[in-house]
Every structure is written in structure tokens, then in C-alpha cells.
Amino acid sequence: MSCSSGRVSAWRCCGWPARRPSRRFNLDSKLMSTSPPFIRLSDCHYDGLRVPEWSISPGEGWCLFGLNGSGKQWVDQLLVGEIAPQTGRVEHVLGQQDIALISFERQQAIYEEEWRLAATDMIPEDEWGTRVADFLPSSRLDDPLIDALNMRHRLRAFYRELSTGESRKLMVLKALLEDARLLVCDNPFDSLDPGTVAALNE
Fold it and tell me: CATH: 3.40.50.300, 3.40.50.720, 3.40.50.2030, 3.30.565.10. Which one for 99-201?
């Protein structure tokens, strides 16, 4: 995988990528799997980014490493369908509702939308926007994962009251409680405390 502004390296690993795996995989080679891949990229080009061949199968975890501007965010957007390759093909077995993108840009978009709502008459003056619990499935509010990520005490808080790390945890919770089958995470542990990182690894 390469880009005109730098090279992106991909590593296959187990679970969340807390540590760099010891073995490197070549994206030019097709990976064999007993199940159809969730996503397959074939000879994809987008601006300076080139992905010759890559697939993500059930049970796999991948890490992408590269310098700023090397094209990692374009890969994220290709995976979730936000952009289409200029040439080549992206095949999705999963529907868009089964794929969750967790990124600072998504967090910021929600934050800006909450401020926009607060500036209108769409919510009462004594409200600060959307509460944390309203982002999560109502049938899953007793899920122990909420406690594992130490967010139980924040369920009644408004989104704008959350720290950057708490809003990141909320996005992870939302994806997992909505049973997303594939998580695409841009800097997955950014702003998270060591306890949360350990809980996610487990």
C-alpha cells in the first residue's frame, strides 16, 4: 500500500492493536480465509494512494502505520464507503449499518451538530443537547460494557459536557452495543486512559 506522500504499512494482529504485532504481512498477496472477506480492495487508486490487493475477513484485526499525509484516512473512507476509488474496486459483503468508523473527525462533527442545535429553538433553553444515553440503544443501557468503560455515571450527561476521551469511549460503546461487525478506528486509543485501553483489549 503506498501513497505519493509516503508509504502506509499494514500489520495483521489479534484484537485491538495495543502493541505492534511481530509479523508483517504483504498487502500484495491475497489472504486465505475460511469465510468470505467483509471487504476486498482490488487495484484501488485514489489520488496518490494505491492499494493493489487487500481483504479484511471475520476475526481479523489490522493496523495501518504511516506518516501524516500518507493516506491512512483515505483508506478509512474507502472501507466505510465515504469515498469511491478513482480506479479499481471495493467489494463490501457487509451493509453500511454493520460498519462503524471511529475517528476524531466523527467526534468533532457530532460536537458541532450539538452546538448547532443549541443555537436554535429545537431544544428547550434548559437543555444542553443530546444526552449520552440517547446515543445508545435503549434496550442495552444495562449492558456491563458500559461499566467496563466507566461510562455509567455519564449516561445523563450531555454530549458537549464530555471530554475528548469520554466522547471517544461513547463512539466505541455505540458501535459495540449496536452490534457493528466491523470497526474502523482512526487512532483507536487516542485520548483514552490506560484502564479503558485494557478494557477494550479484553
Answer: 3.40.50.300
